[in-house]
Design goal:
Bound molecules: flavin mononucleotide
Helix content: 25-40%
CATH class: Mainly Beta
Number of domains: 1
CATH topology: Pnp Oxidase, Chain A
Radius of gyration: 20 Å
Largest sheet: 9 strands, antiparallel
Shape: globular
Distance between the termini: 28 Å
CATH architecture: Roll
């Protein structure tokens, strides 16, 4: 049996107090993201995104945060992927940023909406060319016969686009922004007496309410 299954790590002494958090949870999130980055957390902008499939069942997968401000948390993906279809059918989402090495996690709940085409265009244009070609070639989440068949699709796109021409953003590829209604900051503490501070609001126009949750 892997040793980790029986391990009981006692988390640190670093407290998270009500007086320490910014009044605005987006500002607090950006502070913690900065600290995760400075602490060397691998891919600190990676989160687990949970969605509700069109048939009502849950699904989770990792995606990268590409922007955050008062408009929400921005991610980019294929609108025709499983997650894209799920988000268009049921926009309610949950996100987890699992920053284990700093004994922290942030849990967000909110509503996802497609970003403006201009936002998707700007981000797509900034991606490495290989990633642009991949976005065109891959019908994300659909089965394919083999790795060779996938690489064949990539070569077809490369030939079609031409070596020096810019790659146009596929219409079904772009951004979502998650407008949060709940953001929980979790700090691991000793003996499982963790600190949990959760900001909630009824909707994007309301003010935030802060409360402490039992661990
Ligand atoms: C670290 C990491 C980052 C990822 N970032 C993204 C991303 O930003 N966008 C994306 O579409 N898929 C991303 N993926 C791939 C997704 O986890 C997933 O495999 C893919 O989006 C298809 O998911 P779906 O079939 O549920 O739609 C990432 C995977 C990992 C492990």
């Amino acid at each position: 049996m892997p040793e980790s299954l029986g391990r009981h790590t006692d988390y640190g002494q670093k407290p998270l107090n009500e007086a320490d958090v910014a009044a605005d949870p987006i500002a607090q999130f950006v502070n913690w993201l900065d600290q995760a980055e400075e602490s060397g957390v691998y891919e600190p902008n990676a989160m687990v995104l949970s969605t509700i499939d069109p048939d009502g069942l849950p699904s989770s997968r990792t995606v990268l945060l590409r922007g955050v401000d008062q408009q929400g948390l921005r991610i980019f993906t294929s609108y025709s992927s499983d997650k894209g279809r799920a988000l268009l059918a049921h926009p309610e989402v949950a996100l987890v940023f699992p920053w284990y090495t700093v004994q922290r996690q942030v849990i967000v709940r909110g509503t996802a909406m497609a970003t403006d085409a201009a936002v998707s265009d700007a981000y797509f244009a900034a991606r490495p060319r290989g990633a642009q070609i991949a976005a065109v070639a891959s019908d994300q989440s659909r089965p394919i016969a083999s790795r060779e068949a996938l690489e064949h699709k990539v070569r077809d796109v490369e030939e079609r686009v031409g070596a020096d021409a810019p790659v146009a953003r596929p219409e079904d590829w772009g951004g979502f922004r998650v407008v949060p209604t709940s953001i929980e900051f979790w700090q691991g503490r000793t003996s499982r007496l963790h600190d949990r501070l959760r900001f909630t609001r009824a909707d994007a126009a309301s003010g935030w309410h802060l409360e402490r949750l039992q661990p």
